[in-house]
């Protein structure tokens, strides 16, 4: 478990086995629907003769002297790490390559190419992960998955500018799929919004509702949010819903509308109808098409930020990586 500032994200839904293998850990609010329709399986082939299980992979070997690998790196200080964490980090620096494209390990890039900001961002994330107990082998796998995602096909979303903050011309659009009744969404909300406001010149933050079917008041709450949007008060209702998450029954939603200066009778009528349900299904279909498996899920320019928690440092890291990627036309800056 992390020591500080971690906000676990885990209102999960069951997903197909392939996605389960790479899904993030964490307990959560289960949903009977999956992220994609199940495919028709072909008849099973005859079972092959069982083979003995392969031996587990050997752990990465740490350098004989971790202090030598971690010292002499301009602008970076790893002295606060424990001895065990230093050994793991030294292994990462000696075994992992820098994704800037240079033919050097991460450690060599940090020492030889002091202008490579990319390597420094990688090293900071690796240092955080080992400090929280992750072994070098796990750090290397997660770094590879994270950077490999930049070259994968990006999801495309249709957003509503009334549900976005920041300029539409910002180089990075962050899309959050969220459920007003999901406790993990409520915990992530202040971190995401503070990040968006702090980086308003470079980030446009857009909210897309994804009410989970196992949250009984998620759909009415989302209806209330979309109705308030049409009255020009989406963000006010958005905040009120999360601040009153313990009671999102229809009568409570009507009371919130009154507090916001809206016509509560009109919202009461909306909640008794199917108003906005078709639009909500459209938002959910966008999430399903993108492979969403739970809430909240965050996308940077259509790239899923596949993390089990939200932390400002990691959001900033991903934004800086995305800015570099966009500036260099879908490539990393030359070393």
Automatic annotation (TrEMBL):
<keyword id="KW-0676">Redox-active center</keyword>
<keyword id="KW-0732">Signal</keyword>
<dbReference type="InterPro" id="IPR036249">
    <property type="entry name" value="Thioredoxin-like_sf"/>
</dbReference>
<dbReference type="Pfam" id="PF13462">
    <property type="entry name" value="Thioredoxin_4"/>
</dbReference>
<dbReference type="InterPro" id="IPR012336">
    <property type="entry name" value="Thioredoxin-like_fold"/>
</dbReference>
<feature type="region of interest" description="Disordered">
    <location>
        <begin position="31"/>
        <end position="69"/>
    </location>
</feature>
<comment type="similarity">
    <text>Belongs to the thioredoxin family. DsbA subfamily.</text>
</comment>
<keyword id="KW-0560">Oxidoreductase</keyword>
<feature type="domain" description="Thioredoxin">
    <location>
        <begin position="130"/>
        <end position="289"/>
    </location>
</feature>
<protein>
    <submittedName>
        <fullName>Protein-disulfide isomerase</fullName>
    </submittedName>
</protein>
<feature type="signal peptide">
    <location>
        <begin position="1"/>
        <end position="21"/>
    </location>
</feature>
<keyword id="KW-0413">Isomerase</keyword>
<keyword id="KW-1015">Disulfide bond</keyword>
<dbReference type="InterPro" id="IPR013766">
    <property type="entry name" value="Thioredoxin_domain"/>
</dbReference>
<dbReference type="GO" id="GO:0016853">
    <property type="term" value="F:isomerase activity"/>
</dbReference>
<feature type="compositionally biased region" description="Low complexity">
    <location>
        <begin position="35"/>
        <end position="51"/>
    </location>
</feature>
């Amino acid at each position: 478990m992390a020591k500080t500032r971690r906000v676990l994200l885990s209102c999960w839904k069951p997903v197909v086995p392939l996605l389960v293998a790479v899904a993030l850990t964490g307990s959560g609010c289960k949903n009977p629907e999956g992220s994609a329709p199940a495919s028709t399986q072909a008849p099973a082939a005859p079972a092959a003769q069982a083979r003995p299980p392969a031996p587990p992979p050997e752990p990465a070997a740490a350098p004989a002297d971790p202090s030598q690998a971690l010292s002499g790196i301009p602008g970076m200080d790893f002295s606060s790490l424990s001895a065990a964490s230093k050994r793991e980090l030294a292994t990462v620096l000696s075994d992992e390559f820098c994704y800037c494209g240079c033919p050097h390990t991460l450690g060599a890039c940090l020492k030889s190419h002091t202008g490579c900001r990319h390597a420094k961002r990688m090293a900071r994330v690796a240092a955080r992960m080992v400090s929280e107990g992750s072994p070098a082998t796990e750090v290397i796998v997660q770094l590879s998955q994270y950077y490999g995602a930049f070259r994968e096909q990006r999801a495309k979303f249709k957003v509503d500018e009334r549900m976005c903050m920041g300029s539409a011309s910002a180089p990075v659009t962050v899309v959050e799929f969220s459920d007003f009744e999901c406790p993990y969404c409520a915990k992530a909300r202040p971190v995401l919004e503070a990040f968006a406001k702090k980086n308003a010149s470079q980030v446009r933050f857009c909210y897309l509702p994804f009410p989970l079917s196992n949250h009984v008041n998620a759909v009415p709450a989302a209806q209330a949010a979309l109705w308030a949007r049409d009255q020009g008060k989406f963000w006010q209702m958005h905040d009120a819903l999360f601040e009153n998450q313990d009671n999102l029954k229809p009568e409570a939603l009507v009371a919130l509308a009154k507090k916001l200066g809206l016509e509560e009778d009109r919202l009461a009528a909306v909640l008794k109808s199917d108003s906005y349900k078709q639009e909500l299904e459209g938002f959910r279909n966008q999430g399903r098409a993108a492979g969403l498996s739970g809430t909240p899920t965050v996308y940077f320019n259509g790239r899923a930020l596949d993390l089990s928690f939200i932390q400002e440092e990691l959001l900033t890291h991903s934004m800086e990586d995305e800015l570099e990627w966009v500036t260099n036309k879908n490539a990393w800056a030359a070393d």
